[in-house]
Amino acid sequence: MIQRTIARRVRGMDTADGAGVKLKRVIGQPALDMLDPFLLLDEFRSDQAGDYIEGFPDHPHRGFETVTYMLAGRMQHGDNQGNRGDLGPGSVQWMTAGSGLVHSEMPQQEAGLMWGFQLWVNLPAADKMTAPRYQDIPPGDIPVVQPAPGVTVRVIAGELEGVSGPVAGIATQPVYLDIALDAGAHYDLGLPVGHSAFAYVFDGTAARVAGESLARSELAVLSEGDTLSLAAAEATRVLVVAGRPLREPVARYGPFVMNTQAQIHEAIADFRAGKF
Ligand code: CO
């Protein structure tokens, strides 16, 4: 057993995106540009409608995947190919943008709490121009595992104690777990060797990750290993995500993530020409 440790700590940075949605950017900001294969992690959380009501109107993506995990509130997704989907509490949308699409993500409520995450996962060079694909997963399709007393895990992607999450066929073989620990609970979580991994505390104030305290809104980049020790003195929720690093060149311009600058120029030209 090789325990993963905290290699680096990063605090979410307050910013806004879309048409002015306030959020915390944790990956994809000066303190942590990326964590191969993860390009971005945002947490949006507000019960003030003004912080989210303008949503994310039409915008393009090419060359990677966007993963939306809703904890509270409702958004509606729609794209220029006619795909529509509702994102309600506890649901996940794993969108492989591939060669490109134009979509919007708009709130379906005028008051109340809106809370969730968006993660961007890179695609291998060979898959960047693949056809767009959606995996829309309702909350009831996400298995819940209780691997230890007081520990409840929603397995969104990857495998835990022999139970596999519903997200399938992703090149980076991701693990995406929402882990709730009751006060006093602890658990040694197995993680694939060689995967980049992080833990992000999103609820509770007394999390211990790899034997160290981790504050809410703080992300731990984890060292290599096969086991992560988690504990909590009070009720806590932690997102643990891991993925196979691609180790390929990254050329990035806003919603386009390719391997070369020439491919970025091509993406911009294709988008302007209405080819998405
Ligand atoms: Co988007």
Give an overview of the whole structure:
By secondary structure, the protein is mainly beta. It has one domain (6-272): Jelly Rolls. 4% of the residues lie in helices and 52% in strands. The protein is built from one helix and 26 strands. The chain has one helix spanning 261-272; strands at 6-11, 13-17, 21-27, 38-46, 56-61, 64-72, 75-79, 84-87, 92-96, 101-107, 114-122, 133-137, 144-148, 151-157, 159-160, 163-164, 175-181, 186-190, 196-203, 207-209, 212-214, 218-222, 227-232, 236-243, 251-253, 256-258. A hairpin with a 3-residue loop joins strand 2 (13-17) and strand 3 (21-27). It is globular, with a radius of gyration of 18 Å. It starts with 5 loop residues before the first strand and ends with a helix. Bound molecules: cobalt (II) ion. Cobalt (II) ion (CO) binds at residues 56, 59, 61, 66, 103, 105.
Any key phrases for this structure?
binds cobalt (II) ion, 276 residues, 26 strands, single chain, mainly beta, 7-stranded antiparallel β-sheet
The CATH H-level homologous superfamily: Jelly Rolls
Principal-axes geometry comes out as: globular
Number of separate helices: 1
Terminal CA distance reads 47 Å
- Got a strand count? 26
Cα radius of gyration in angstroms: 18 Å
Ranges where pLDDT stays below 50 over 5 or more residues in a row are none
Trace the largest sheet across and list its strands: 1-22-19-24-17-14-13
**Bound chemical compounds:** cobalt (II) ion
Determine the fraction of residues in helical runs and give it as a percent range.
under 10%
CATH fold-type name: Jelly Rolls
Could you tell me the strand content as a percent range? over 45%
CATH architecture descriptor name: Sandwich
Number of domains: 1
The CATH class is identified as Mainly Beta
Mean pLDDT: 97
